[in-house]
Amino acid sequence: MAKRKGGGFTGVSRNWQRGKLRWRFKKHVNGVKVIDAYIDHPYGSDEFKAEYEALLRGAEKPVFSTAIYGTLGWLIEQFMGDAQYLNASDIRKKTLRGQFDWLKAEAGKWPLDDIRTRHVEHLMGMKAGPSAANTVRKNLSTLFNFAIRKEWLMVNPAKKAMARKENDSGYHTWTEDEISRFLDRFGPGTKQRLALVLILCTGAARQDVIRLGWQNIKAGRISYRRGKTGQAADLPILPELWAELDGLPRDVMLFLNHGGGRPYKPESFANWFKDQCIAAGLPHCSSHGLRKAGATRLAYAGATEYEIMAFLAHKTPHEAATYTKAAGRARLADGGMSKLPSFHELQGNRNSQAIENKGE
C-alpha cells in the first residue's frame, strides 16, 4: 500500500484503500499512539481543517484505553478520542459522558463481535421510560457506526432494534392562560417574571439564558450563540422584554444570577425556575416548555418553518415543522368548521356574551 506524507498537516498521511484515497492522522505522545483516525473530507477543505484541529486537541488530552481491546468499553474510549466526539459542544460531551458511563458499567466487557440486536434491546429494556430506552439505542447506533467507519465492524446491530414509542409533545408547552397566571403571581421587576419573559421572547434554552446580559444587546437586538449546537441567534427585542430589561443595572454582566453576579449552572437554574412554577400553581410547567410556547406563538401568527428555526437557533427546520403543522391543522379545522351554520351561531353567542360582560 503506497503511502506518503500529507503535506502541511503534521501527522497526516495519504492512504489508498481499495482504490479510494483516504487521509490518515496519527499522533504519538512519549512513543505511545494516542490518536489514529481517518479524516474523510477533501484535503485542505474547511471541514478537513476543523476535524484535523479537533484531533489535535484530542491528542493534547489523550484518552488512554483502560478497557479490553475489542469490547464495547474499548469502543467507547476510542470514540471519545475521535473528532466526532471532540467537535461536539461541551454540554453535549458532558451528557454523552454520563450516558457512556452507564453503558460501560452495564456492558463494557461485552465483545463487539458478539453483540446482536437482542442485546441492544436488552439494554434498552433496563431503562424506565421510552425516551431513555431510545437514547440507549441512539448512542449504541452512533458507536457502532463509528466502528464501521473505522472498519472494526461490518454491521450495526442497533439499526434493527425496535424503537419505543414516545410522547410526541415531550415537555408540556405553556398555554397563554398559564403564562398569564405566572405573570399575575410575579409582578414587574421580579426575577421570576424576567426569567419567563427572557425565555419566551428569545427562545433561549436554559444553558443559554443564564449567560445573557447587556453584552448581548446592541442596536435594539439581542444575539447569542446556542451552547448545544453553536448556532447563532439574532433577534429583535420585543416591547414586553424591554419593559423588564429597562430597570436592570448596566454594570451587571448576567441578567439572571444568584445575587452579586454569581452565575447559575443550567441544572440549578432549571431547578430554581421549577420551584417558581410550583409556587405559581403550575407544577407541570418548566423552562423548556417556554421555548415551545414561544415557537407556538410564532406558528399561530403565521411564521414559516425557517423563521421558527431562526428563533430557536436550530440548524435545520425539522423541529420547527412540528409547530407549523400543528398551527396549520388548527387553521384548517377553523376553516372547515366555519362552513357549518352552527359555527356562526356560536360566534354570535360569544359576541353577545362579550357585550353583556362589557356592560357589567
Task: Give a quick summary of the entry.
With 360 residues, this protein is an alpha+beta fold. The chain has helices at 46-60, 72-79, 83-86, 90-107, 117-125, 130-149, 176-185, 191-202, 206-209, 239-245, 266-279, 287-300, 305-312, 320-337, 341-359; strands spanning 3-5, 12-17, 20-29, 32-39, 217-218, 221-225, 232-236.
- How many independent structural domains? 2
Give the strand content: 5-15%
User: What percentage of residues falls in helices of 4 or more residues?
Assistant: 40-55%
Number of helices: 15
Number of strands: 7
* Spatial sequence of strands, sheet with the most strands: 1-2-3-4
**What is the averaged pLDDT score?**
84
Instruction: Indicate the overall shape.
Output: globular
Superfamily (CATH H level) name of the largest domain:
Intergrase catalytic core
Structural class: alpha+beta
Tell me about the largest β-sheet: 4 strands, antiparallel
The CATH architecture of the largest domain can be given as: Orthogonal Bundle
What is the CATH class designation of the largest domain? Mainly Alpha
Order of helices and strands: EEEEHHHHHHHHHEEEHHHHHH
Low-confidence stretches: 1-6
Instruction: Supply Rg.
Output: 26 Å
| CATH third-tier fold name of the largest domain | hpI Integrase, Chain A
Cα(first) to Cα(last) distance is: 91 Å
Features:
four-stranded antiparallel β-sheet, 360 residues, three-stranded antiparallel β-sheet, single chain, alpha+beta, hpI Integrase, Chain A, disordered N terminus
